[in-house]
């Protein structure tokens, strides 16, 4: 079995990532593992090259910076560079390096780099899906808590009469970003799952409205 399809590659990636720091608890190894799982599923459904998708998904956050870091838009490029250094060290086939580097750079919202390959689209989709649904709600609260943001505006929790501002309130992030994700997904498989997860978030807000 070649390295690009072997459990040995994934073991190498996991050991490497365990030695790296993470910007916050929402971008930890659990997040990465979920992205890998979804990326594999999308790759099979969309007939993408796993030799690119799997290492790119594992290493997409090997450099991560806090949400409020002034150079956050550079994090995915730094991650791409570091990923290639690591893959070189384990003798991963170099013919995949350009595609892996691009997929890692293009996964990020803040980098604003359009994915121009199917594999890059899948890695981006898998990462963005992890911002939706039940796990997306939990991750939003993890990041907002780390930044000490209140849960909602007491006089207009759901942005009915004001512009949402996620620098001030956690729930506002649903309106500034999270509810835009499903429409931004690239592949049909991800779009279907994105709509399902988005509905979970809307139901959560319905229950939150009842409780407050």
Structure description:
It is a single chain. The protein has helices at residues 7-18, 29-46, 50-59, 75-89, 97-106, 118-129, 133-146, 172-184, 188-211. By secondary structure, it is an all-alpha fold. Helix 3 (50-59) runs parallel beside helix 6, helix 6 packs parallel to helix 9 (188-211) and helix 7 crosses helix 9 (188-211). The chain is globular, with a radius of gyration of 18 Å. The termini are far apart. 40% of the residues are buried. The model has no long low-confidence stretch (mean pLDDT 91).
Number of strands: 0
* Uncertain residue ranges: none
- Helical residue percent band: 55-70%
Overall spatial form: globular
Largest sheet: none
Structural class determined from secondary elements: mainly alpha
Strand content: under 5%
Integer average pLDDT: 91
Number of discrete helical segments: 9
Based on CA atoms alone, the radius of gyration comes out at 18 Å
Q: SSE string, helix = H, strand = E?
A: HHHHHHHHH
Gap from first CA to last CA:
56 Å
Present the secondary structure layout.
Blueprint: H1 7-18, H2 29-46, H3 50-59, H4 75-89, H5 97-106, H6 118-129, H7 133-146, H8 172-184, H9 188-211
Helix pairs in contact: 1-3, 2-3, 2-6, 3-5, 3-6, 4-5, 5-6, 6-9, 7-9, 8-9
